[in-house]
Write a structure and sequence with these properties.
By secondary structure, the protein is of the alpha+beta class. It has 2 domains: 1-65, no CATH class; 67-108, no CATH class. It contains 2 helices and 7 strands, in the order E-E-E-E-E-H-E-E-H. It has a 3-stranded antiparallel β-sheet, with no helix packed on it. The protein starts with a strand and ends with a helix.
Length: 108
C-alpha cells in the first residue's frame, strides 16, 4: 500500500498492485484495474518511486523471515538471495529443498 494525497489535500492509501496505469495531464490520474479513477497531487514519477520502495520493503521483510533466503526470478535465471549473506550455493539449496520435501511427506 502506498500513501498518496487527493487534490483536496485528503490523504489516501492505495493498493499499488491495483494500479493499471497512471497519466499526468496535468494532474496525475491513476486508473485502477477496477476501472476506478483516482486523481492525486503526486507526480507519476513519485507514484512509481513509492511503489518501488513499498515492494522493496515487502521483499526485505519476506527475506528476513526466510532463514535459507528467498528465490528471486531474474529473467531465465533463478538465484537465492538472503537478507544477510551472499547467494546460497546450489548444493545447499538442493539440500534445503530435499529437507522440506521430507518434512512435507512426514506430515502427511
Amino acid at each position: 500500500m502506498i500513501e498518496l494525497t487527493r487534490l483536496n489535500g485528503v490523504s489516501l492509501v492505495v493498493n499499488s498492485d491495483l494500479i493499471q496505469y497512471a497519466e499526468s495531464a496535468p494532474d496525475t490520474t491513476l486508473t485502477l484495474i477496477t476501472g476506478e479513477k483516482v486523481v492525486v497531487r503526486e507526480s507519476a514519477s513519485e507514484v512509481i518511486n513509492r511503489t518501488v520502495a513499498y515492494r522493496g520493503r515487502l521483499l526485505g521483510e519476506a527475506a528476513s523471515h526466510c532463514p535459507g533466503g528467498m528465490v528471486v526470478a531474474s529473467g531465465a535465471m533463478l538465484r537465492t538471495v538472503s537478507a544477510n549473506r551472499l547467494p546460497i550455493p546450489q548444493d545447499e539449496i538442493e539440500s534445503n529443498i530435499n529437507a522440506a520435501s521430507r518434512r512435507r511427506r512426514a506430515e502427511r
